[in-house]
Amino acid sequence: MNQSSNHPARAVVLLILLSLIWGTSFILMKRGLEVFSAWEVGSLRIAAASVFLLPIAVTQLRGLELRHYGKLLLSGLMGIFLPAFLFSLAQTRLASSVTGILNSLTPICTLLIGVIVFKQVFRRASLIGILIGLVGTCILIMTNSEGGFGGFHFFSFFVILACILYATNVNFIKYKITDLRALTITSVSLMLIGPPALLFLLTATSFVDKMQTVPGAWKALGFVLLLGFMSTSLATILFNKLVKISSPLFTSSVTYLIPVVAVLWGLLDGERLLLGHFIGMVAIILGVYLANRKT
Fold this sequence. Notes:
Blueprint: H1 8-32, H2 38-60, H3 66-90, H4 96-102, H5 106-116, H6 124-142, H7 156-176, H8 182-203, H9 207-213, H10 217-245, H11 248-252, H12 254-268, H13 275-292
Helix pairs in contact: 1-4, 1-10, 1-12, 2-3, 2-8, 2-10, 3-7, 3-8, 4-12, 5-7, 6-13, 8-10
C-alpha cells in the first residue's frame, strides 16, 4: 500500500506548505537585495540557516566517521553554498518570478547528470520531456522587456548553473552518501559551510556598516533571516517528513507548484510577465512532468 494513503491530509498540508515556502524564497531574496549585495544576501542566508539547524547538527555528529566529513562539505558546497550566491546574483538583474520558473529545471538537470556522470539508466521517453523543458528555458530567457525575443539574458545562466549544482548534489547524495539520513546530511553540511559564510560576511563585505547606516537595513535583514530559516532549515525538515509519508511521485509535485507561487508573488509585487514568460513556464513544467513520469 502506498504510504500516502495512510496520511493523505497531512501529506497535502505539507505539500502546500513546502510550495509556499520555496515559492516565497525568491521574493524574500528580492527584498534583501534592496539593501544588501548579492554576496551579502548569499552569505547571510547560509549563516542564518546554519545557526538554525546547528542544534540538530550537533545531535547527528555521534554517528559520523572521519570519511563522512569531506563528502558532507562537498555536498554543502554544491547543494547550498554556491547556489545561494548564484541565485542572489541572478536576482540582481532577473525578476523573482522568472528566477522561480527557471529553478524548476532542477529535476531535468538531475536526470541528465544522473545519466552522464553516474551512468543512470536513461529512459527514451524522458528525452521528449528534456527537450520540451530546454525549449521552454530558451523561450523564457530570450523574452525581452518589450515582449519580443532577443539574445540570451546572461544572468539566467547563474540560475541554470545553480540548478546543475543542485542536480549534481542530489545524485552525489544518492550514489555516494548512501549510509546517512537526509536530515544528517543537510544539517551537518550547513554546520561545515556556515562559519566560512559568516566570516566572509563580516570581513569581506560592508554588511556591518550597512546595518549601522543604511535606512531599512534591519527590515531587509529580517527578510534574509526568514529566507535562511524557511527555505533551508524548516523546508528541509518538512520535505524529509513528506518523503516518509507519501509517494515519490506525490513529493515531486512540489516542483510544479513552486513556480506558480513565485509568479504570483512577482505579480503582486508589480513585476511584469509577458506571454513568452508564461509559454516558457508551461513548457518547463510540462517537460519536468514528462521527464520524470514513471510510465
